[in-house]
Amino acid sequence: MSSFNTSLPASKPAPIHRLDESVINRIAAGEIIQRPSNALKELIENSLDAGATSITIAVKDGGLKLLQIQDNGHGIRKEDLAIVCERHTTSKLKVYEDLSTIQTYGFRGEALASISHVSHLTLTTKQADSECAYRARYSDGVLVQAKPGESSNPEPCAGNNGTIIAAEDLFYNISSRKSALKNARNEYNSIFEVASRYAIHNSGVAFTCRKMDSVKADLNTQQGASVVNNIRQVFGFNAAECLVKVEHEDAGTGASFTGLVSNAAHVMHKSVFLLFINHRLVDNSQIKQAVEALYGSVMPKGSRPFVYLDLQIKPENVDVNVHPTKREVRFLHEDTIIGSI
């Protein structure tokens, strides 16, 4: 039996109308911020764009109750706090053509806006030449009051140079999403995975990640530690001791890569594949499949490789705007570059 609603005659289509702006923004936010780790990835990239050398992450209930990130970057101008959480507000580009030379992580001006549409967002920021920090609260992209009757304008407060962003009650207004993400352990593991991968790639930045109710941090890398040391902290001694350095430059495509990959004697039962393209953590199934197929012929039966690749491609040859979360990218000369790897 059909389950379709047959109450309306097929000959009379429903009228088309414009969606309310709040509905549009919440739908867009749900596409970009699919789970707490997506929000964290966007916030980490903002911190790195701000020149941070120290990033501290605190999590409660898998990021659903609280996801907080603190950095020592250059902060946000007080004059920009009124619009920083509006959609499509950015300092990274002005015209579409700027995308062809983009060197920063963020560019669309949707990360903070999206998070503010699905959480209660508080931002505290201080620039080095400012006498004090400023705290602002946001909902649905706009400044809101901390308490009824108070001003919604950013308020001066004590604070260190840099920015603290706290997203509370993530997906409080999208009940289906929140119900689907009720396993706090899985969400924290995903958060740790994102944080640890960026820590490995950004060895010049100190990363800390911990649960709010835990005194000890699960991730604690030091500024200036080597990539190998950071791999050792995250994946253990055996993974770090079996690594071989690889590097290559292709004059024809202008692409180059460096990396650390496991040798043929490496024994690990789960594959680890870390791929950064122009310093952005991404997925690429073609590269992953090609590398794993190669390892399948040389590694012991049942063992899986560890692969960390830092791939640099001319910005004009990369399309970073093909996926809402920027998790996937497309690039020219893909077959040639994969062959080089």
User: How many strands, which pairing sense, and closed or not: the largest β-sheet?
Assistant: 9 strands, mixed
Number of strands: 16
Mean pLDDT: 85
What overall geometry do the principal axes of the alpha carbons give? globular
Helix coverage percent: 25-40%
**Separate helix tally:** 9
Q: Oligomeric state of the chains?
A: single chain
Unreliable spans:
none
List the secondary-structure elements in sequence, H or E.
HHEEHEEEEEHHEEHHEEEEHEEEH
* Rg result: 22 Å
Question: Alpha-carbon distance between the termini?
Answer: 54 Å
Q: Which strand-content bin applies to the residues? A: 15-25%
The structural class is: alpha+beta
Main location: nucleus
Domain DNA mismatch repair protein S5: 231-340
InterPro entries: DNA_mismatch_repair_CS, DNA_mismatch_S5_2-like, HATPase_C_sf, MutL/Mlh/PMS, MutL/Mlh/Pms-like, Ribosomal_Su5_D2-typ_SF, Ribsml_uS5_D2-typ_fold_subgr
Protein name: DNA mismatch repair protein
Report on this structure:
- There is one protein chain.
- Helix content is 26%, strand content 24%.
- The chain has helices at residues 21-32, 36-49, 111-117, 175-180, 184-201, 227-235, 237-241, 285-296, 334-340; strands at 54-60, 66-71, 120-126, 133-139, 142-143, 155-157, 162-168, 206-211, 219-220, 243-250, 255-262, 272-277, 280-281, 306-312, 318-319, 330-331.
- The strands form three sheets. Strands 1, 2, 3, 4, 5, 6, 7, 8 and 9 form a nine-stranded mixed sheet that branches.
- The protein is globular, with a radius of gyration of 22 Å.
